[in-house]
UniProtKB/TrEMBL annotation:
Homodecamer; pentamer of dimers. It comes from Dokdonella koreensis DS-123. The keyword Transferase applies. 3-methyl-2-oxobutanoate binds at D55, S56, D94, K123. The gene is panB. SUPFAM superfamilies: Phosphoenolpyruvate/pyruvate domain (SSF51621). This is 3-methyl-2-oxobutanoate hydroxymethyltransferase. Catalyzes the reversible reaction in which hydroxymethyl group from 5,10-methylenetetrahydrofolate is transferred onto alpha-ketoisovalerate to form ketopantoate. One of its GO terms (cellular component) is cytoplasm. CDD domains: KPHMT-like.
Length: 274
């Protein structure tokens, strides 16, 4: 065997504290998913603030119809690949379906995603029962990104990939859940597929940054799935996605165009929201 570094090199750079400062200054946070070192390095070089190793890899990399088949082994593998490409950006990695179903399992999965996968932040879906998990991680100084609204790991319960929080009762529940995840110790919150006005209200009510996807222009930041941004999603991309490679001549230019559009407020437009 040849010598290898014992662990991914620590990346100086972006922290959850820095993203919180960006929120307080009104500077937009730009995030994109990545699944390997090459695209991680491209995103990093384009000045993307946060790179997410999403379990969307089950759909865009593996070709499954949902994110549910993704395993901890797989997300750890992809996260470690991305970590080798990323220096400045904050590296956030999804905890897969059922890998945080109770506190002991969540601690074990997070330990692997951080120690082997090089993640700085673990991301998990839901509130309710998951609040106890967020609290346990937070108490152990694990940085956590919560994820509310359309939570794709609940697709069979939600009945499809649909906008959430349209009815008054659902909107009230979402606002309460957002406050609860912050209270439980979450450092960031992804809001997916919720009405723009509701996402704006939640963003104004929280101290932690909100990162929207299909959640309108008033979140503190935006995230897109890499394949949607590059126009290479198998099948039909979600309505909130935009192909930034169209009109650009390189992946680097597309990522820069996306970052510029988020920072200027040009993206997302009304046609990308609900
Ligand atoms: N390529 C890709 N992009 C994503 O944003 C994404 C994934 N995959 N996989 C994991 C989840 C699943 N997501 C999805 C997938 C589909 C829709 C979708 O088709 N939504 C309908 C909205 C329907 C409504 O109006 O309620 C759409 O037309 O966009 C939304 C989110 C978001 N994430
Ligand atoms: C769509 C983003 C937020 C995500 O969770 C993923 O890529 O898995
Ligand atoms: Mg995900």
């Amino acid at each position: 065997m040849y010598a290898q570094p014992a662990a991914p090199a620590p990346r100086a750079a972006t922290t959850v504290t820095r993203l919180r400062e960006m929120k307080s200054r009104g500077e937009k946070i730009v995030s994109v998913t990545a699944y390997d070192a090459g695209f991680g390095a491209q995103a990093d070089a384009a000045g993307i603030d946060m790179v997410l190793v999403g379990d969307s890899l089950g759909m865009v990399v593996q070709g499954h119809p949902s994110t549910l088949p993704v395993t901890v082994d797989q997300i750890v593998y992809h996260s470690a690949c991305v970590a080798r490409g990323v220096r400045q950006a904050l590296l956030v990695t999804d905890l897969p379906f059922m890998s945080y179903r109770d506190v002991p399992t969540a601690l074990a999965s997070s330990a692997r995603v951080i120690a082997e996968g090089g993640a700085a932040v673990v991301k998990l879906e839901g509130a309710g029962w998951a609040l106890e998990v967020i609290r346990a991680l937070s108490e152990r100084d694990v940085a956590v990104c919560a994820h509310l609204g359309l939570t794709p790991q609940s697709v069979h319960k939600l009945g499809g990939y649909r906008v959430q929080g349209r009815e008054a009762a659902a909107a009230e529940q979402l606002k309460a859940d957002a406050l609860a995840v912050e209270q439980a110790g979450a450092d960031l919150l992804v809001l997916e597929c919720v009405p723009s006005a509701l996402a704006a209200e939640i963003t104004g009510s929280l101290r932690i940054p909100t990162i929207g996807i299909g959640a309108g222009p008033d979140c503190d930041g935006q995230v897109l799935v890499l394949h949607d941004l590059l126009g290479i999603t198998p099948g039909r991309p979600p309505r909130f996605a935009k192909n930034f490679l169209a009109g650009c001549d390189s992946v680097a230019a597309a990522l820069t165009a996306y970052a510029d559009a988020v920072r200027s407020g040009a993206f997302p437009g009304p046609e990308h929201g609900f």
